[in-house]
Amino acid sequence: LRASAGEVMPEGHSLDGVKELSSAWARCRKLDYLSVNAAGPFAVPPMTMPPAPMVNLAAEIKQVVDLPVFTAIRINNPATAEQIIRNNEADMVGMGRALICDPDLPRKAREGRVEDIRHCIACNEGCWHRFCRGEPITCVQNPEAGFEGRRMIKPAAEPKKVLIIGGGCAGMEAAVVAHQRGHHAMLCEKTGELGGAIRMMAMAPNRQEFGQAVRFLKHELERLLVEVHMHTDMTLDAVLKENPDAVVVATGGLVITNPSATKVGPKFAIEIAAGTHVLAAEDVLRRNGEAGQCVVVADCQDHLKGLLAAEILADQGKQVTVILSAPRKVFTSNPYRVELITHDLQLQRLKTKGVNLVRDQQVKKARPGWITIRDVFTNAEQDLAADSLVLSYSRESNDALYFRLKGKVSQLYRIGDALAPRLLMDAIHEGYRVATQI
Q1: How many Å apart are CA 221 and CA 104, to the nearest integer?
Q2: Does residue 38 contact residue 8 with C-beta atoms inside 8 Å?
Q3: Which of 144, 82, 91, 83 is nearest to 109 (CA)?
């Protein structure tokens, strides 16, 4: 029997009540075991919650029954599972999302290959988010999940020299898969760090586990001895000099600092007067630059970047107002491309930290000391006092090299943000798909 030992809400049943029920169930001698979890909004806890958050519930139930007790929920590595059993908190540990992310986790653990495990980061974007939208589940980090039998790594019919330009997650995935297929993969990264934009997201509050996606791909590059060149800026001439059979451009995206109508469209354009103190959300996430005391965040994209920047600013003691441009009332669901549990917990944290969330408005003008916002329904305008404006836009594709290479190499591909700025899942899955096509 699987049972919830608490609903984590005032009107839900309590742990004490479930302990009494569990004792009665055990006495009936009809059960082989009890699998204990929690119901309610935290049944699929996201990255913002600590690992193994429900183990204490199983441990409490275990004290009142003489049945084997199972636990589960956000347990993503064998060391945690072993510790739970060693502490006698449960008799068996179940893993769901962890095995979607890496079906070989048990075998790798048994063989002592712990570093080879691809750890679930509890982003919920490929699994729970898609399930809630009625879509087949997959995994942000595991492109084969949900596509078994259709996506698989097969040896290449003809080994080729494949040049991958850009060491973000899209480029790293492409390099790993191309190497696994027997190609000579050569990965070139302009900077001294692999990981691309996701390293920035891993610097945000409660989002550090995004770094696990980078760790795993870096580990695979090292384990497979893929050729990697750091501090290597690949120009048109440099690419042609390498004479590759195929080129994969994974050069990422560029931060938007001038939100003109030609760049972001008239709907999200902001007229910024000279002297206005402006930062990008990326600056805030990287802790580059200092915002003034009174800050307005223009959240003009559909993921967490602007909300995370607002949280960082609030933690710095700033007075923060976030202008949420997406009008929720004309949507039947969350307008952000973020699963609902993560989104709601983020909004809850912002409210508890005193962040002012203003919906159905758009920032239209900025001048020193003032921001003008416009109602998306009535077009009525009002001014807000602000020392700094923080811009949160989707990035623009860094695709100049791709278009210079068109017609000059026999096989040319573009992946990740270099194709279109999107999410981590799009980047990794695209890197996988392209590498399996070469």
Answers
A1: 18
A2: yes
A3: 82
Q: What residue has token string 């048109």?
A: 236
Report the alpha-carbon distance of residue 402 to residue 411 in Å, rounded.
11
**CA atoms in the 13 A half-sphere facing the CB of 265:** 8
Contact 325, 268 (CB under 8 A): yes
Residue 213 to residue 426: CA distance in whole angstroms? 13
Q: Which two tokens stand for residue 70?
A: 């199972």
Compute the Cα dihedral for 57, 59, 62, 67 and give only its sign. Answer: positive
How far are the Cα atoms of 39, 132, 287, 370, 389 from residue 277, in angstroms, in the given order? 46, 40, 16, 10, 6
Structure tokens at 408: 């000059």
Sequence letter at residue 319: Q
* Consecutive 10-residue averages of pLDDT for the chain (438 residues): 81 84 91 88 85 93 95 95 97 96 97 97 95 93 95 96 98 98 98 96 94 98 98 97 98 96 93 97 95 97 94 98 74 70 92 95 96 94 97 96 97 98 96 97
Strands (E), 308-360: 319-324, 356-359
